[in-house]
Design a protein that fits this description.
619 residues; alpha+beta; Immunoglobulin-like; 7-stranded mixed β-sheet; 7 helices
């Protein structure tokens, strides 16, 4: 008498229960995992499986209603068990899998609710699923046969069966507006069997600033409908690019060299054992190229606000002050937090105008950026620190940030409220003498000195002939100090007058400040810190131009720099050198790795350009 299928399943379960009891196997409720799995995308007319797996002995499985699918078969149950002995400790794991075979009823994206199962009297819930049903292929590719051979197609791969495409999110954009560029490989799953990728050559994005999107290491082909045909698709590279000039910009073609697994034409299987012979398949190299893609870039419209510095996207800004009441010589900090989506890495720091009697330090900038398919987003926090030296009530003007919103096609300005600051008299008083230096600014401390007593030993008397009083040398001792006093007084008055002109002071110190920053850039170049090197060169150039032209950095743009330099008599050649260096730095920060000699050359050009500018603009 033969056993029925139900009798066999019952014996399996009894055997497992006895084995678990023998090994003393216990299932910790906290370690029970119940998981659902299914393909992300399927095509109409094709069958697929949905599986529910639990790492324990489960029963009373309850699946959600699958109204969008026909249940062709299931559930089928499979059990597995593994035992390990490590350092004398024996551990065992058991899992049960319930499988359904389904077929979609209609095209669309469908949500499958979680299922539930009972383990030792406790209910557990699986994850939900999202299944996308694609339309069937326009061409009846299902009729293609592979002659029963394993691992490889016998059908020649046509142009429409394997190709590399460049997909862009927008074809018509503004300057500095982000565009998502995706290099995606498409393969007909019925005709193409990809063994691997031998070589990838993707183009440079000339005329764009680029931010690559990090992709997972283990990428698999997923089903996707493209031009009415279902393909296995995989993303090769994704980047968000920002056009740096208007006009038509072209993304050149990319190139992939693939290894395809195909059936060997010289040997056909003669028996069932030949199906397991690897000599039945061969690998063939195939090169695919993408077509270039053009993007039309519109210039930003006129009417730019005064506080606009090139920000394009959608941004928000919040501001705060560390305290509205401090004492003299105590630090006060204004914190500006810029958040949003767009070219946030290129957003320049807004200007904070502290009173003239404040000692102002370079701002501290903290960034947190993330680039996704939705674009570059994140936050930029700028902390401006200053130290008031005199008591009183001060009014710090509002902080403003302007940006261009490509969705509405308009400029928008964000502005904070003004900051009221009350400064009380601190230790030493507001009239106490104060000195400062570049590294650390603090009050001068006066040290008392002991009284020096007159010495009375070894007294020597001189004759009248040796008396110094009334002699020529005696008169010179009065005349020379008087002349020196007048000269120093004139020089001192001139310095006071010049120091009162803050713009003139900044202009005179422009070269020294730029040289100091270029020295830091030279150290970064030696350490091969590419992005930090280009950032430091940019700060040196923008800071030099700001000091030299007496224009706040927040108001500096490439357009008004060229205009101002012409006013000072700078020729077009030198102006173009400065613009080229600025463009090279901005491009190189996000470009692929640069050679060290490129940084050396840029460093020498920058030093040379600043030297020429010093000889041209003399103040």
């Amino acid at each position: 008498m033969f056993d029925t299928k139900n009798d066999i399943e019952m014996r399996k379960r009894v055997f497992l229960l006895i084995l678990f009891a023998t090994l003393g196997l216990t299932v910790d409720a906290a370690n029970v995992v119940f998981r659902a799995s299914a393909p992300q995308a399927v095509a109409m007319g094709e069958n697929f499986r949905i599986s529910y797996t639990v790492n324990a002995e489960g029963k009373d499985l309850r699946v959600p209603e699958l109204s969008a699918f026909d249940v062709l078969y299931g559930p089928t149950t499979s059990n597995s068990m593994s035992t390990q002995i490590i350092n004398g400790n024996m551990t065992s794991e058991v899992s049960m899998t319930f499988t359904y075979v389904l077929q979609p009823k209609r095209v669309g994206t469908f949500n499958v609710a979680p299922a539930t199962i009972k383990v030792k009297g406790a209910n557990y819930t699986s994850n939900a699923l999202v299944i996308k049903v694609l339309p069937a292929d326009k061409a009846n590719s299902a009729a293609v046969q592979n002659d029963g051979e394993r691992g490889g197609s016998t059908v020649a791969v046509g142009k429409g069966d394997l190709f590399l495409a460049i997909n862009v999110s927008k074809r018509n954009v503004y300057e500095q507006e982000g565009v998502l560029v995706t290099f995606k490989l498409y393969a007909n799953p019925k005709k193409v069997d990809i063994a691997g990728i031998n070589d990838i050559k993707l183009p440079e994005f000339e005329g764009f600033l680029t931010q690559d999107i990090e992709l997972p290491q283990n990428r698999q082909l997923t089903l996707e409908n493209y031009n009415g045909q279902n393909y296995g698709a995989v993303v090769i590279k994704q980047s968000v690019v920002y056009p740096q000039r208007s006009g038509r910009l072209t993304i050149p073609s990319g190139r992939l060299e693939l290894a395809l697994r195909m059936a060997s034409p010289s040997r056909r299987p003669r028996s069932v054992f030949d199906l397991f012979d690897d000599n039945n398949t061969i690998e063939v190299n195939k090169v695919v190229n993408s077509a270039p893609v053009a993007i039309d870039v519109r210039p930003l419209p006129s009417g730019k606000p005064a506080s606009f510095s090139g920000a394009v996207g959608s941004f928000g800004m919040t501001t705060s002050i560390s305290s509205n009441k401090v004492k003299t010589n105590d630090a006060v900090t204004i914190r500006v937090n810029i958040t949003g989506n767009g070219n946030i890495k290129l957003v320049k720091n807004p200007e904070v105008k502290f009173p003239n009697d404040f000692d102002v330090y370079d701002p501290k900038v903290t960034t947190d950026f993330k680039t996704t398919t939705a674009g570059a987003s994140g936050s930029k926090v700028i902390e401006y620190m200053a130290i008031p030296r005199y008591a009183g009530d001060f009014d710090i003007p509002p902080v403003s940030l302007s940006f261009f919103d490509p969705k509405s096609g308009t400029y928008k300005t964000l502005a904070s409220s003004s900051f009221k600051l009350h400064v009380d008299k601190g230790v030493g008083g507001s009239n106490a003498p104060v000195v400062s230096n570049f590294n650390n600014k603090e009050n001068v401390k006066y040290l008392g000195k002991d009284i020096r007593y007159l010495k009375i030993d070894n007294v020597r008397f001189v004759s009248r002939e040796e008396v110094f009083f009334g002699s020529f040398m005696y008169m010179l001792c009065y005349i020379i100090p008087a002349i020196l006093f007048i000269v120093f007084f004139i020089i001192y008055r001139k310095q006071i007058k010049e120091n009162a002109n803050l713009a003139l002071v900044r202009t005179k110190k422009a070269n020294k400040t730029a040289v100091r920053r270029l020295k830091n850039a030279g150290k970064l170049m030696k350490d091969n810190k590419k992005e930090a090197f280009y950032d430091e060169v940019l700060r040196a150039l923008w800071g030099y131009l700001s000091d030299k032209l007496s224009i706040p950095q927040a108001q500096l743009t490439k357009d008004n720099v060229e205009t101002e330099l012409k006013k000072y008599g700078v020729d077009d050649v030198l102006t173009n050198e400065f613009m080229d260096i600025l463009n090279t730095c901005e491009f190189a920060r996000y470009a692929p790795a640069q050679a060290s000699d490129a940084m050396d050359k840029l460093y020498e050009l920058t030093v040379d350009a600043i030297g020429k500018m010093e000889n041209t603009i003399k103040k």
